[in-house]
Design a protein that fits this description.
By secondary structure, the chain is mostly helical.
């Protein structure tokens, strides 16, 4: 299938998607299960919950890659959910494996997506004022950067070295 040439904005968003895929793994590198579960305060989510939330958010792009599978963690990590006590959350390794699997599939789908579809209406409205797929992707890249930054701060609060970009 031949795809249209992508705009510079689209290319930048795709590059950011791939960067976030890597940074997600980098920010989790070396964290133990107890560290990933630690909350610095009662009202603050832990690293594991943030990782699960980002993975669930990535699932919102699954139709781009024709992925016909439900998000197994949506009930735990979707928008409007928060970290709860007495819930059997998946392990950090399970979350990371799902992140990498879904990210690879979505990245492939994005690379095949024609520009006219990217400029067409997105399946959900987001607070960015651009209701296209490209606008949706822009908002999701902001959302991911925000939460990866939170995870990086929590990592430092755990006494770990800073997240690496390489």
């Amino acid at each position: 299938m031949q795809t249209a040439v992508k705009s510079p904005v689209t290319c930048a968003l795709f590059a950011q998607f791939d960067l976030h895929t890597k940074l997600f793994n980098n920010v989790l590198d070396g964290l133990s299960a107890p560290e990933a579960n630690r909350r610095p305060a009662r009202d603050i989510n832990n690293v594991k919950w943030l990782a699960g939330h980002l993975t669930t958010t990535r699932f919102s792009l699954k139709n781009i890659a024709d992925i016909d599978r439900p998000d197994p963690y949506a009930e735990l990590f979707a928008h409007g959910k928060s970290l709860r006590d007495n819930i059997d959350y998946p392990s950090l390794d399970q979350i990371r494996a799902l992140w990498n699997e879904i990210s690879d599939q979505i990245s492939t789908g994005l690379s095949r997506m024609p520009e006219n579809v990217l400029n067409g209406p997105a399946p959900a409205r987001l607070p960015i004022g651009d209701d296209t797929y490209e606008g949706m992707l822009a908002f999701l890249m902001h959302h991911e950067a925000y939460h990866i930054g939170q995870m990086a701060l929590l990592r430092r609060m755990l006494g770990r070295e800073s997240m690496k970009y390489d």
